[in-house]
């Protein structure tokens, strides 16, 4: 089946959904690739929780600001609009802080590592 | 070989390179996936030129503004910051206009179509 063209607005429709208040929207999904928008308003990772993903994650902070801690680093990285980071598979990380005063918009590209890679 | 963590600033280092004045930077590259930043300052596609790619292209307009014509559509789509569009493989398109008064920053994710798809 031929894929249709699809479009959207990254900065629109950012109101929270559900009680947790953080919002996740898939923008593209196919085997081995997913593009997701995440909208945070002060949310952080739960205590002692680490993301540990089998996919790579290329993530851009589109708006707002955040602090991201990479396991093994002494202090979190401060991210502001336009900053991106490519997290290899199993690069453990957690969100230590997002600005509670505004919406922080992330664009995350999750991708399968190359075959034969690590 | 284990992939290293890499980072960058999408809104920095946007000065033109070369005579054409449009700038292209690969931010991530692996088989079947490439993430590229494009910085345009008034550039448009040459007359009668159409992009016709075997990959899909998910593209976000991060800053600036542009008009993108999709083959078969009567008029170009106006894109402003935050607008994204997913162009399936072989969706012919051309850039009719980018704002000559400012830098238009695109984030393009080129991806192999799913096996058995199209």
TrEMBL record, chains A, B:
Q: Kindly give the InterPro entries that the UniProt entry links to this protein.
A: Cupin_2, RmlC-like_jellyroll, RmlC_Cupin_sf
**Domain of life assignment:** Bacteria
Where exactly are the transmembrane stretches of this chain? none
**SUPFAM superfamilies referenced in this protein's UniProt entry, alphabetically:** RmlC-like cupins
Every copy of the Cupin type-2 domain together lies at 41-110
A Pfam family matched by this chain, by name? Cupin_2
Protein name, as recorded: Cupin
Identify the species of origin: Denitratisoma oestradiolicum
């Amino acid at each position: 089946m031929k894929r249709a063209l699809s479009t959207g607005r990254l900065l629109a429709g950012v109101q929270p959904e559900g009680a947790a208040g953080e919002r996740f929207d898939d923008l593209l999904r196919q085997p081995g690739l997913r593009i997701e928008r995440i909208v945070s308003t002060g949310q952080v990772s739960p205590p002692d929780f680490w993301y540990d993903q089998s996919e790579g994650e290329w993530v851009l902070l589109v708006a707002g600001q955040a602090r991201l801690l990479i396991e093994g680093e002494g202090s979190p990285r401060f991210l502001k609009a336009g900053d991106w980071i490519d997290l290899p598979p199993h690069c453990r990380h957690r969100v230590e802080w997002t600005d509670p005063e505004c919406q922080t918009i992330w664009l995350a590209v999750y991708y399968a590592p190359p075959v034969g890679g690590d």
